[in-house]
Amino acid sequence: MKNELIEIDSVLVNKEVLQVKFACDLSKCKGACCTLESEYGAPLQADEITEIKKNLPAALEYLPPAHVEEIKKKGFYESKDGELVTRSVRNKACVLVFYEGDVAKCSLERAYFEGKSSFRKPVSCHLFPIRISDFGGDILRYERFSECAPALENGQKENKTIAESCKEALERKYSSEWYNMLVEASRK
Asked: Which of 32, 118, 153, 183 has a CA 20 to 30 Å removed from the CA of 22?
């Protein structure tokens, strides 16, 4: 299953995306995907830079002072080995993260849901735990993190696959028609 791929309208999808049970459980993981230890944050697409710049003022009001300061000094993104990524604060949290109690959340998404922003969040974040690799075209794969163990348990309980959990994000990236083809292919 790990290396089996299916093709949906020129996009290769690892079958794990269709078979692994996964449903986020923020009460247990505390938003770990936003705070994984790393020198950089979330992968960005070039067109997202403009959207984030336009909507950043609305997101800033939710951020802790250290994150606002980092953005003011260095900006919210950088290029690492030719890849665009959000900055990381102290090699821990994405620079766009704020905390609601002990749960890490996205300031862009908060502003979006409060009607203050037209941009929800980077598609890589929205798709997580799906990652897109580009080898002359998109390849969707499941990226494992031990911090997501509660999501695997919750996925079993809810009987929900990664693809089902990421339906909205997959439709955002590829279209609802594409998602329907993916579902149809998963039944074969």
From this structure: 118
What separation in angstroms does the CA of 126 have from each of 106, 123, 132, 184, 187?
Answer: 10, 5, 12, 22, 24
As a whole number of angstroms, the distance between CA 172 and CA 166 comes to 10
| CA gap 66, 72 in Å, rounded | 10
Each residue's pLDDT, cut to its tens digit, for the chain (188 residues) gives: 567 999 999 999 999 999 999 999 999 999 999 988 888 889 999 999 999 999 999 999 999 999 999 999 999 999 988 889 999 998 889 999 999 999 999 999 999 999 999 999 999 999 999 999 888 889 999 999 999 999 999 999 999 999 999 999 999 999 999 999 999 988 87
158's CB contacts (< 8 A; 6+ apart) are: 21, 23
| Cα 132 from Cα 126, distance rounded (Å) | 12
- The pair of structure tokens assigned to 49 is 């830079």
pTM of the model: 0.91
The C-alpha R_g of the chain, in whole angstroms, comes to 17
